[in-house]
Write a structure and sequence with these properties.
Elements: H1 2-26, E1 30-35, H2 42-55, E2 61-63, H3 75-83, H4 90-106, E3 114-116, H5 129-135, H6 137-140, H7 143-152, E4 163-167, E5 170-175, H8 185-200, E6 206-211, H9 229-247, E7 252-257, E8 263-265, H10 271-275, E9 282-285, E10 304-306, E11 310-317, E12 327-334, H11 341-347, H12 349-357
Helix pairs in contact: 2-4, 8-9
């Protein structure tokens, strides 16, 4: 009897120690950086984002799509060619645009893990989704993504433009949602399966869904999945899935998008979602170098909104005093004096100034 009680006591003690260790581990504070839309002046802005975020020891950077313009040469591409004494034609630009992105926008991150999302400009002719996968296979098949993809389905040996990975009880999900054929049936089946598993998995506290275009019925509905019927239908379904997992499975849910070239917090504080289930915390951070867009008419309904700015969101996971799984997002605005010296020298001070003083859209957005 005494021996049985001793064993039982040891089991209970070990269980308590394991739970304590697990809780401690899951509550460790760490951070990551996120933004999207780095065409136009992205070769100037992205190195500044990298330099600033790396100072904060971010665990990774997440790009939400639209790397280069593709339909015509980006201003930074033209400027660098001009400084080299080279002319720029469309064929030359299209051939080198993605290599330019890697050299000028990924390389500054050094060893910081870089998670890459697809946007609508990645499929602007002559570019295709298949070409994007082939060009950026290294990033779409990162060890974290490959391991999770094969764990979900051992037959999925090839990387895809939508993916997820789990870190510290958080499921990070990226959706390929910025063309009229997406979200397609295959991807909808996939996201439904991922969220169903997350809802039943007690080890998952938080779900962060990144994408290029904002889900429908946001404050930025005029430039989002609302622009085409299939986007409205599939986007609303995904939003309802996320509402369900937030309200019924009691997971913490955050939604991140870009596409609109401004910063906004509280993007789903709209009459539609108030009448159809409620608000999910959502942000737009299309501020990594693309020409800046005017804020939409209902921007005053957002918690915060800024345009004609560049920067990124710093995401602090498990901030002190908050429940495990909480993430605090803060927009980090970068000023002209944030540009690294080597970038300033390469592109010239007048061009860098023009990226800040100009690079603004006053007409229809694209």
């Amino acid at each position: 009897m005494h021996k049985t009680k001793l064993v039982a006591g040891l089991v209970l003690a070990l269980s308590a120690w394991t739970q304590s260790a697990d809780t401690s581990n899951s509550a460790q504070t760490w951070s990551f950086a996120v933004s999207g839309d780095s065409r136009n002046c992205g070769d100037v802005i992205m190195p500044a984002i990298a330099a600033d975020a790396i100072k904060h020891n971010v665990a990774f950077y997440w790009h939400l799509g639209d790397l280069r313009k593709i339909s015509g040469p980006d201003q930074d591409f033209i400027e660098e060619r001009t400084q080299q004494g080279k002319a720029t034609d469309l064929a030359d630009y299209e051939k080198h645009a993605w290599d330019d992105f890697v050299a000028n926008q990924i390389k500054p991150w050094g060893n910081t893990p870089f998670f890459l999302g697809i946007g609508n400009h990645e499929t602007t002719a002559p570019k295709t989704r298949a070409q994007f996968v082939e060009q950026f296979r290294k990033y779409l098949d990162r060890p974290e993504l490959k391991e999770q993809r094969l764990k979900d389905n051992s037959a999925e040996i090839q990387p895809r433009t939508y993916f997820h990975w789990i870190r510290d009880r958080i499921d990070f999900i990226y959706l390929d949602n910025a063309t009229k054929d997406q979200l397609g049936p295959e991807q909808m089946k996939w996201i439904e399966g991922v969220l169903n598993r997350d809802g039943k998995d007690a080890s998952i506290h938080t779900i962060v869904v990144g994408m290029h275009e904002a889900l429908p019925e946001s404050i930025s509905a005029n430039h989002s999945m609302n622009e085409y019927p299939s986007g409205i239908e599939t986007g609303r379904r995904v939003y309802q899935m996320l509402l369900k997992i937030q309200n019924e499975s009691h997971k913490v849910v955050y939604v991140l998008a870009s596409h609109s070239h401004f910063f906004m917090e509280g993007i789903f504080n709209t009459p539609y979602w108030k009448a159809n289930g409620g608000e999910i915390p959502g942000w737009i951070v299309g501020t990594a170098g693309a020409e800046r867009y005017p804020l939409p008419p209902a921007a005053g309904d957002a918690k915060a909104a800024k345009t004609n700015v560049y920067g990124y969101m710093m995401a602090t996971v498990n901030p002190e005093g908050e429940p495990p799984g909480t993430i605090k997002f803060k927009f980090e605005e970068l000023k002209e004096d944030s540009i690294p010296a080597d970038v300033l020298q390469r592109f010239t001070k007048p061009f860098v100034h023009e990226c800040f003083a100009g690079n603004r859209r006053t007409g229809p957005v694209e």
